[in-house]
Amino acid sequence: MALSASELQNLANASIDFHMRGAAQAQVIQNRPLYNDLVASKKEFPAGKEYITEPVKGVYTSSMRGYSHDDEQEYVNPVNVKRTSVKWYEVSSGIQVTYTELKANGISVSDDDNFQGSTVTQGEMVQLTNILDDKIDDITEGSYRSLHEMFWRDGTQDAKAIPGILSFILDAPTTGVTFGIDRAQNSWWRNRYSLAIDAATASNNNLVNTLQKEFRQLRRYAKNPQHKFYAGSDFMDAFEKELRAKGNYTLEGWSKQGRIDASVADLSFKGIDIQYEPMLDDLSRAKYGYVLDMNQIKLRPMAGGEWLRRHTPKRPVEKYSMYMALTCTAAISARQLNSSGVYSIA
Fold first, then answer.
1. Which H or E run contains 84?
2. Buried/exposed code over 304-338 (b: 16+ C-beta within 10 A; e: otherwise)
3. Which helix (H) or strand (E) holds 261?
4. Which of 186, 1, 14, 158 is nearest to 83 (CA)?
5. Which of 176, 220, 189, 191 is CA-nearest to residue 83?
6. What is the rounded distance in angstroms from the CA atom of residue 121 to the CA atom of residue 138?
7. Angle between the N-to-C axes of helices 122-152 and 5-20, in degrees from 0 to 180, rounded to the nearest 10
8. 3-state DSSP call for residue 242?
9. What are the average pLDDT values for consecutive 10-residue runs of the chain, which has 346 residues?
10. Of 264, 284, 338, 308, which is closest to residue 39 (Cα–Cα)?
């Protein structure tokens, strides 16, 4: 069998489409709650912009004052709007298929643009699909997996990577400059935090009580918040222990006939599901929980189809290979920080 290079590229693009819709049932793919939530609510920014900027305001100058008769009126000139400035980044992943490995499976490729290809048998198509499937499964899952990690990490692992949640939801939020605004000088430009909560004695309910107080503050300045709660395994264990310390397995007690479910129900707080985030375990943050206002935190891909854009470039003259790539041009931005928080147990 022989294929033209363009036919092979078309097959590869079709296979990428198939895998990006979730074809495989792989055994080592973790849930990606943060990735899924950010992608679901992504908001494009216009191409051609060097930075993504948004106006924010945390100080008000005007105020009402008492007066009588001919007291002089005081006038102020408010100049309190600041602008966030977020740099966008380009990231990519790519794979290759060598003509040699295709030949080893009975498939040859012609670089002649006028070559129309021979009749493809069902068996040959299955063989080609098997070759492409593994490679394209690798690039799609590998891309999702690395983006998910990137969306959490602070960007220090790679100067050209997209900085994620840990770059602006900080354990120590009172200092430093975030998106061009100084946290030390602007107390309103800080996330909430409470670290090393003593959860050693579950019956004390320290974790639940801390969250109860914190949610009042998380909602204090939030406008139509859409809070999502992501937690590592140790954080969730501590939460479950506190529930067990104050609750019962069943309303009927042990006298109930038949099966007794000894588990704790799926966790939520203030009606918000607490989602287990495996990436926090991978990043040595199993003891942490993050409450993020997803109305204010956005994935910002560049307009024009720059999110997971597919590329099948022509082969270089010095190599007999086919290349496929996925690229993203994007940033993660926030326009309010005090409606999100980070919490951890000791």
1. strand 81-87
2. eebbbebebeebeeeeebbbbbbbbbbbbbbebbb
3. none
4. 186
5. 189
6. 26
7. 50
8. helix
9. 68 69 53 94 90 94 93 93 96 92 79 61 70 84 94 97 98 97 97 97 95 97 94 97 74 57 82 96 98 97 94 87 93 97 98
10. 308
- Report in angstroms the alpha-carbon separations of 42 from 20, 163, 172, 330: 17, 16, 27, 10
* Cα radius of gyration rounded to whole Å, the chain: 27
Token digits of residue 305? 């189809």
Structure-token pair, residue 70? 């001919």
Task: Kindly tell me the burial class for residue 229, based on how many C-beta atoms sit within 10 Å of its own C-beta (0-12, 13-18, 19 or more).
Answer: buried
Return the residue matching tokens 């004052």: 65
Q: Name which of 30, 27, 10 is nearest 277 in CA terms.
A: 30
Alpha-carbon dihedral sign for residues 175, 178, 181, 187: negative
The residue written with tokens 């204090």 in the block is 220
Residue by residue, DSSP assigns 141-200 as: HHHHHHHHHHHHS-STT-TTSPP-GGGTS-SSTTSSEETTEETTT-TTS--EEEEEE--S
How high is the pLDDT of residue 21?
Answer: 59
Predicted TM-score (pTM) of this structure: 0.87
Q: Are 110 and 4 spatial neighbours (Cβ–Cβ below 8 Å)?
A: yes
Contact 301, 329 (CB under 8 A): yes
For residue 252, give the 3-state DSSP assignment: coil
The answer to whether the beta carbons of residues 99 and 316 sit under 8 Å apart is no
> Which three-class secondary structure string do you get for 9-64?
HHHHHHHHHHHHCCCCCCCCCCCCHHHHHHHHCCCCECCCCCEEEEEEECCCCCCC
CA 19 to chain centre: 20
